[in-house]
Amino acid sequence: xxxxxxxxxxxxxxxxxxxxLIVDDVPQNRVLLGILCDQFGFQHEPAENGYDAxxxxxxxxxxxxxxDILMPRMDGMAATRAIRALPGPVCDVPIIAVTTAAAPGExxxxxxxxxxxxxxxxxxREKLAEAISTALAARxxxxxxxxxxxxxx
Length: 153
Fold this sequence. Notes:
alpha/beta, 15% strand, disordered N terminus, Rossmann fold, 40% helix
């Protein structure tokens, strides 16, 4: 799955009741991402590791997953692979890496396992909004067969 581009000149695409799964092993990071989701008007739930993320994703109730990479038990890359292997449409949930490990080579690794985008920590509100908007717009375009302009990434 490749990184999806944003629509040129488009305002952020947020579903009215966007549901976000926040996956991070550090409680303070989950709180911070939760505050940002609150500011965007999103519903959100936390998960502490990749195993919890996989179980939550199975439910199909999330519109986007914010996934830390470096976690004990099951890291974000393994969790993404496992989510992508799930049956049915739940495997297509947009997954955005939120990580301190965001060098160009690392970003390519994350995209190669099926993540849709990467937001570096410390998280910028604007970059997070753009990543979520792009992911939701791409998913909406797939569901409606509408074209989405791809950016060079």
